Amino acid sequence: MAKIEFENSEALCGWVSEQSAGACLLSFSAGKDSIGAWLRLRDHFSEIIPVYMYLVPDLEFVERSLRYYEDWFGAHIVRLPHPSLYRWLKSFTFQAPENCAVIEDFDLVDFDYDDVFNVVKAVYGLPEDTYTAVGVRATDSLNRWSAIKQYGAVNVTRRSFYPTYDWRKDDLLDAIEQAGVKLPVDYNLFGRSFDGIDYRFLKPIRDHFPGDYERILEVFPMAELEIKRVEYREAYYARHNP
Asked: How many CA atoms lie within 13 A of 89 on its CB side?
């Protein structure tokens, strides 16, 4: 299908709202882009269903942020597993040997983002052609700018769109500041939203939220090796590069 052109993101949101009868889903990571997208959507949609996909279930620091945004926006945030969680389990990421046979017995299915959103649409009784908003901005990176320039800010086949595609970083931060909504603790810990189980995230979680770190080890019991790997590498370079 040919790219659909819009004068700006305001026009895009208005068009999508008409297509979806005022309802949409929102891929909500609790990061600044998804917060900005939610703020923009409120001007055009009467029903917004935010969906958070967790990498590790029941992390308290994540739940505190989600409860804050539920209170601030006055809407329930649906929690469902992230496709990466199943992918990591199936590839035995940070797994103890005795866990591998158990994971195989579960025969975990492969699924993607569209599958998650389709489940939400079915549960909420929304038409399959309801659109999902994603907080992607063209100025985030050259790749995103190139993709939006080539394909546009709406994907009619996948029923997804970028409600803030033409916002610059200053536009995003201004909208968040003017609304008075807070960024999650993630930005103090990681400088970004929580989206992985590598050293960048594991070390700050271990240092600041030991209970959540123990929860991660329940799901990925060998994750401590990631911290040991980096600490050993840094110690090695320090010894050989005084």
From this structure: 23
pLDDT, one tens digit per residue, over 26-51 is 999 999 999 999 999 999 999 999 99
C-alpha span between 173 and 64 (Å, rounded):
22
185-213 tens-digit pLDDT: 999 999 999 999 999 999 999 999 999 99
pLDDT, position 233: 86
102: left (phi over 0), alpha (psi -120 to 50) or beta: alpha
Neighbours of 207 (CB within 10 A): 10
Q: What are phi and psi of 3, to 5 degrees?
A: -65, 135
| DSSP string for 36-90 | HHHHHHTTT-SEEEEEEEESSTT-HHHHHHHHHHHHHHTSPPEEEE-HHHHHHHH
Cα(166)–Cα(148) distance, rounded to whole angstroms?
Answer: 10
Question: Residue 218 CB: number of other CB atoms within 10 A?
Answer: 10
Classify strands 132-134 and 23-27 as parallel, antiparallel or unpaired.
parallel
Residue located via tokens 């620091």: 61
Contact 103, 89 (CB under 8 A): yes
Look at residues 191, 137, 121 and name the one whose alpha carbon lies nearest to residue 8.
Answer: 137
Q: How confident is the model at residue 1 (pLDDT cuts 50, 70, 90)?
A: low
pLDDT score for 237: 79
What is residue 113's DSSP assignment?
H
Nearest Cα neighbor of 195 from 32, 15, 20, 71 is 32
